[in-house]
Amino acid sequence: MKKILCIALLFSINLVKSQVTTQLKVSESPEFKDEITVDGVLAIHTTKSGKTGLVRANKNNFLLDVFDAKLNKIFSKRVESSKKESFDGYVSYENEIKYITVLSPSKRERIVYCNTFNIETKTHSQKELFKADVEKGGLFTGRNKRGTNVAISPNGKYIAIATDNIKKNLNSYKIHVFDSETLKVVFEKTYQEDEGNYFEPNDLFVDDEANVFALGKLFISGKSKKKDGDANYDFVLNKISKGNNQSTKISLESGNFISSLAINYYENQLSLVGFYSNEREGNIKGGCNFKINASSLVIIAKKNSELPKDVYEDLYGDAKAERHDKKKKELNSFYVDYVVRDDQGNTIVLAEEFYVTQTYVATGMNGAGYWTTTYHYDDILILKFDKNGEISWGRSIFKRATVPSYNAFLKDDKLHVILNSGKNLTEKSDGRTKVSKGWFESSALYDFTYSPDGKVDYNKIQDNKGNTYYLPFYGTYNLDTFIMMSDGGRKKQFMILQ
Fold first, then answer.
1. Which of the chain's termini has less CB crowding within 10 Å, N or C?
2. How far is CA 76 from CA 47, 56, 122, 406, 497, in A?
3. pTM for this one?
4. How would DSSP label each residue in 349-379?
5. CA distance 67 to 37
6. pLDDT tens column, 299-317
7. Which residues contact 203 (CB under 8 A, 6 or more apart)?
8. How many whole angstroms separate alpha carbon 88 and alpha carbon 314?
């Protein structure tokens, strides 16, 4: 057994892939101590003066912190909350974080609040926005893995909140739009009201004129996503304004299914980017891009491009990738996480493979036991679209994780994917580079850097053993700087990448 283990170790050492140190400037903040034990980051925002605000929570409190430009903690405030009060999204603009909470005093009653945290003045206030009665489910059902139901306009003037309004014999959905400064209602409108058709929201956007664009799946019959092997829904883009409701069906040519879409708004242009399939709902054969006239909702142009071979090589290795590319094997279970755009009008979409498994654990005789649920956050798919909607390049990251584990940002036209992996990235015999941690292996923090033409460098930021362990997923990129907070108990620290 020892001989076999030694051979295995030597084999893995021979496969160690050379890694260079990241070219980003790396620094760490002074350590700070929390007043109370809190969970992960709910909201984070940096102002133009360099101050950073942080919102976190536990069962009874929200914890609000302010840090100076060097990330020294200069303010902390505990805001009491009820066990019946939940966090349901946030927006940030200039000096403020506005986070939405929902109080459930009874089975049917819901009260929606907006909490305003001004980072510069170190103040907090709460205002009731509206009340609602629910007959089925909650106000924010039907969300995807990282979905959101609140959005702020690019100019910071308007906040939109999308809610379900489902009654016993009627499916309907509602939009509230508020003035972001006064929090007064600009308008509230119902949309997609129908006895039989459910609507599952995917993305939300509000423009500088308070027009709201709600993108999602409109089910044809019932709630099942499949019917007779085909997709049981159409993608629909709704435009809701104070005086009018419009909608348009988003589709490719016959025989193609759209897997997922996200709204991308850039320089007054509205586009929808995502994935499509030839086989079934949820699969991915390639990327699709729709340019939309924001006034009329007319589709100006639509493109779909098959996955590049590099995607298969990164996931399956050289030989298997050749077969998959030839057959154009479809991927599945990927959800859009990030949509970023460079100064040349190119769009990069990142999606992560996400699925849930359950395992029965036997604990005694006669079948006694319990079920455990595991959330899988696995491979990452990266596609770069040019300004005409064609795929310029595609890559993927072969990884395994059970928690959200990565973040991404563009700096100087290079894409940086920040994640934790095993201490040494190893290149497998089939050409793949696997991002995961072995049983007896310590971990390291990496910066996967993609050039404008898709070439990748695997850059190590630090070995985590003996150093502070950081959580990229909870980080934020603002003012050309990415900051992320550490894991652990009450003592915390920030890492800064510039």
1. N
2. 17, 11, 9, 27, 24
3. 0.86
4. EEEEEEEEEEEEEE-SSTT-EEEEEEEEEEE
5. 18
6. 999 888 999 999 988 888 7
7. 147, 214, 215, 216, 261, 262, 263
8. 36
